[in-house]
Amino acid sequence: MSDIHIGRRGLLRATGGAALLAAAGGTAACGDGAGTGEAQTLSETGVELPSYIPSEIAAPDLAATEDGVLAGYYSFPRDLVDAFDAPPADGAGTVSILTNMFNPVPPGMGDNAYWQAVNASVGAELDITMTPAADYLAKLSTIIAGGDLPDMLLVSASLANRSDVLANLCADLSGHISGDKIADYPHLANFPTDSWLPSVYNGGLYGVPNPRAIVGTIMFARGDLFAAQGLNLAPGSYDEFLEAATALTDPAANRWAFGNPRGLITYVGNMLGVPNVWREEGGEFTNEYETEERREAVARVAEMMAAGLFHPDAASENINLRDLFGNGTIAMGPDGYAAWDILADTYGVDVQGIPAPSYDGNGEGVHRAGTASFGLMAFKKADDDRIAQLLNVANWLAAPIGSTEYMLRKFGVEGQHFEWDGDTPVKTALGTNETTVPFEYVTDAAPILGPRAQARVDAQRAFQETAVPRIVRDPSIGLYSNTAIDNAGELAEIIKAAELDIVSGRKGIEAWDEAVDAWRAAGGDAIRAEFEAAVDTASPSPSESA
Amino acid sequence: MTALANRKPVRRNVNGTPPPGIAVRGAKGVVLILACAFVVIPFLAVVSTSLADQQQITEAGGYVLWPERPNLDAYRAILAGGVVTRALFVSVGVTLVGTLLSLACTALLAYALSRPGSFAHKPLLMTVLFTLFFTPGIIPMYLLVRSIGLLDSYWSLILPVLVNAFQVLIMRAFFMEIPRELTDAARIDGAGELQILTRIVLPLSKAVLAVIGLFQAVAFWNAFFNAVLYINDTAKWPLQLVLRTYVVDNTSLGVDGTELAGAAMPASQSIQMAILVVSLVPIALVYPFLQRHFAKGILIGAVKG
């Protein structure tokens, strides 16, 4: 039950984010007089993250490890367990929820037997307002400005004045779920501790995460193309990786090694040990852009581009990379970890992950941690009983694999929405149509590998076992910077433009230094100052690293 | 005489110049064919891709120009669940009702503003002009729509965009060109203002009505953002918003997509293209019937005022 991923130092950093938020959050809106614009010391910053209590509902074929390697399942457990004896949110009435969606819109609740079955099992009417992800920020901002918040709302990371919104409109859940209190909600307790860090604001826990694997982005490769040329899927150095890329590239056969130059910069950066966004040493923050290693990564990718290893349209960033990967036009490319199954299932090709080697072949490369939560499901301020009801709803939605509730949420009602084909649930036409209600973007069970064929799960597991021990976390996760949110677009554009200019040969590598200077001036230095102030205020006593 | 009779008539262009040689005409033909291809090929690719299977789309890298194994699976997929069909009806209803109401209100307002000396003529005109230059923001509009109880109502898709000041001015300019003698004669015959509008002015203004009607119909048909803000019940979503959930960008290889790491694969390319076809066809069917009024109406309205 101890905090397995983050030591006290990490925890203090997280609470330091709250200190900064209290200071810089522009609290004029809430009128509490704290908006001085300077970092303030919080005398009591004791935010205790929820304990991690692994679920015992269905033993996995490959157990999760403490450092973040996911549990693996070769097949769906058939002996399903009821995770709840009775509908957990009974009496909650209607629970209004605002979230985004990536799937086609499902039939409305009145015409949707799946949705109604979920409501019956939860014990509440889940009134979900769903919005296409591309328009979600506009909808969220409008709803917040209108003042009629739903019971639960997905607060996206890029919401302006996010700190004010959380602190003034949303409930602090720490009194309900901090530490071992989370045991009252055992399926939320199954979330890795990494996933809870982004929930920390203003000295409290302001939402339930939507957990994601810490492994984040993976460099995928077409295993069949590597095998056809006898290439090594685990190159030992940059030179060996470059040799493989060169061997795979054959413009006459309409094949190139890569399709995305900026993704490659990050990957080569992993070989060189570039920090994950920020590096923090003794309370001082250095951005990845300011490191010599990152500059070198840009230069190496520019060389690869000049050598013709990229698809000719790569620098346009306007090509369908998944299709090109699927049809073998490009052989390698980074994507989110969930894409492993998506690519393999959609295109029926052999997908493999390539951990970054060390640049010179000595030692190991690093692996950038991903954000371990998709957004943050915050609750509107309410009395304790209502908050408990909402947490029960979230707890139901987080019921893990092996439970009847998980199968209901993912596949619907057996015989109506899905049928078993051996040990594999197969959706019916009705199931395909109705089960796209975006419950998974309210919250979801802790991530797992599979259930899939053993060979694929083993390959995914092997990748994670290699990458996770080398993982480098972003030390700013859990900290808060208004500038980082307000200036995010401008800052990203400065770097993106410079990277594309350099890799496409329009400018030399010296343009990188100008871009980094511009980045600093446009807000990079301000973000650094805000993070450093946050860590200062959160470190009242000497603390050890995680 | 004989020589004159045998002389071939010389073909000349309308402006009296001799016709160009075969090379020039050939070059023009090639240019025109290329220009047509630029327009036609994207449409062909959309329709073909909607009929192609996943294997061919994957091999082609996204779009196909001609489906090798044409099938209607994509159309079956989007029309099977009833969601798209329902949204189609919503969009047709909103477009029809909205366009008719919009035309009625625009014509009434434009007619009033085209009669100098009518009640509060100048203040009204200024008010209309004001809305042309200063538009309300998203949030004030949301607050207004909410305060008058239109959230989750079809009217929230119609009323906020019912009257467009620019179109009022176009129609007003058109009405002002109708000879005053006509309306004066009607008035002498005992016609009231409403009769003059419905029996004299509107029958003479079919061109501008067609243009404004088409503008509004296309705007109502394509609108999705108001539905994002005002309609929470997905059963009331118009077609364009439903389609957006099929074609919305998703994470893909190369995007540093940790935020979206768990996101599902977007609908297949064939489904996205089928969606495009479904959304294009109805409005494309209307256009040819109004086209002959289109250029005439917009030019008359635009250059006189």
Describe this structure in words.
The complex is a heterodimer of chains A (546) and B (305). Chain A is α+β, with helices and mostly antiparallel strands and 546 residues long. Chain A has helices at residues 8-24, 113-122, 136-146, 162-169, 174-177, 193-196, 223-228, 238-248, 261-272, 292-306, 321-326, 339-347, 384-397, 404-411, 429-434, 454-467, 482-486, 488-503, 510-537, and strands spanning 94-101, 125-132, 152-155, 200-201, 204-205, 208-211, 217-222, 278-281, 284-287, 332-336, 351-353, 367-368, 373-379, 418-421, 424-427, 471-472. Chain A folds into two domains: 68-214 and 372-448, 3-Layer(aba) Sandwich (D-Maltodextrin-Binding Protein, domain 2), CATH 3.40.190; 217-370 and 469-537, Periplasmic binding protein-like II (D-Maltodextrin-Binding Protein, domain 2), CATH 3.40.190.10. Chain A is 37% helix and 13% strand. In chain A, β14 and β15 form a beta hairpin. A five-stranded mixed beta sheet of chain A has the order 2-1-3-13-6. In chain A, strands 10-7-11 form a three-stranded antiparallel beta sheet, sandwiched between helices. The two termini of chain A are 16 Å apart. Chain A has 19 helices and 16 strands. The longest helix of chain A is centred in the last third of the chain and has 28 residues, at 510-537. By secondary structure, chain B is mainly α. Chain B has two domains: 2-71, no CATH class; 77-303, MetI-like (MetI-like fold). Helices cover 67% and strands 0% of the residues of chain B. Chain B has 15 helices and no strands. Chain B has helices at residues 2-6, 22-51, 54-60, 73-80, 83-113, 121-133, 138-147, 155-158, 165-176, 180-188, 193-201, 206-222, 225-230, 239-247, 269-303. The radius of gyration of chain B is 26 Å and the shape is flat. In chain B, 33% of the residues are buried. The model of chain B is unreliable at 249-267 (pLDDT under 50). Chains A and B meet through β2, α3, α9, α11 and β10 of A and α3, α7, α13 and α14 of B.
